[in-house]
Write a structure and sequence with these properties.
This protein has 240 residues and is α/β, with parallel strands linked by helices. It has two domains: 98 residues, Tetrapyrrole methylase, N-terminal domain (Cobalt-precorrin-4 Transmethylase, domain 1, 3-Layer(aba) Sandwich); 125 residues, Methyltransferase, Cobalt-precorrin-4 Transmethylase, Domain 2, CATH 3.30.950. The chain contains six helices and ten strands. A hairpin with a 4-residue loop joins strand 8 and strand 9. The radius of gyration is 19 Å and the shape is elongated. The C terminus is likely disordered. It holds the Pfam family TP_methylase. Its EC number is 2.1.1.107. One of its GO terms (biological process) is methylation. One of its GO terms (molecular function) is uroporphyrin-III C-methyltransferase activity.
């Protein structure tokens, strides 16, 4: 008995893995996390928001012989409660089989042409701006060098800006990015303007801080048509 925990990728249905698609096709039930495109699960979809106890629902169905897939946004191991959920399922005698996905922390900056590492920048750090219990990120946890990729930052943007400016250059490049199969939105500027740049965004969004923001890769994925595109450009010019 097992539940397949499958990473659905960063929001574009075409960015899920081949194995993930095969398991969905073979599944009897596909539990969708809140941010997963509904079209991935099709008629087998059960939104997790409709379940009072998602782990119990998946465990009971797996024990009754049904093939259960839990589709997680991005990659299940990145702020996806993977350890906790698999531990709960094991108490039901149900195993977890994990299928990695493309994390939005890596995919979204790349899709906008922002490299996370480049000559002279040898590391990147993925952070969540809000931890369990609504405790916000502290400057003590923020590296002073390398690229930063920050998730779940919009709700605490003022606090986040203050903490970042304690350890990072106010003229450092920052990008606020949102990507899904239907719309793309970006605001690019300097760290000192982070709160203004984030205005108009709704969760989820990825915030990138670092040299790569100012050294965009001269390529792009296939551009959407104008009626599909939502793109916000900051009034501030990089380097001002």
């Amino acid at each position: 008995m097992k539940v397949h925990v499958v990473g659905a990728g960063p929001g574009d249905p075409e960015l899920i893995t081949v194995k993930g698609l095969r398991l969905i096709a073979e599944a009897d039930i596909v539990v969708l996390d809140r941010l997963v495109p509904k079209e991935l699960g099709g008629e087998k979809s059960v939104p997790i928001s409709s379940l009072q106890d998602p782990v119990r629902f998946m465990a009971v169905n797996a024990r009754e012989g049904r093939k259960v897939v839990w589709l997680k946004n991005g990659d299940p191991s990145v702020f996806g409660r993977l350890l906790e959920v698999c531990a709960e399922l094991s108490q039901w005698g149900v195993q977890c089989e994990v299928v990695p996905g493309v994390s939005s922390a890596i995919a979204v900056p790349e899709l906008f042409g922002i490299p996370l590492t480049l000559p002279g920048v040898h590391s990147f750090t993925v952070l969540t701006a809000v931890k369990r219990g609504r405790e916000a990120l502290s400057s003590k946890e923020i590296p002073r060098c390398g690229t930063l990729v920050i998730l779940m930052g919009l709700g605490v943007i003022g606090h986040l800006k203050r903490e970042l400016l304690k350890v990072r250059d106010p003229d450092e490049g920052v990008a606020v990015l949102s990507w899904s199969g239907e719309s793309r939105m970006e605001a690019v500027g300097n760290l000192r303007d982070l709160d203004r740049l984030s205005s108009g965004f709704k969760p989820p969004a990825v915030i990138v801080v670092g040299e790569g923001v100012k050294k965009r890769v001269p390529f792009a994925v296939e551009e959407p048509s104008l009626n599909e595109r939502s793109c916000l450009r900051a009034n501030s010019v990089m380097g001002d």
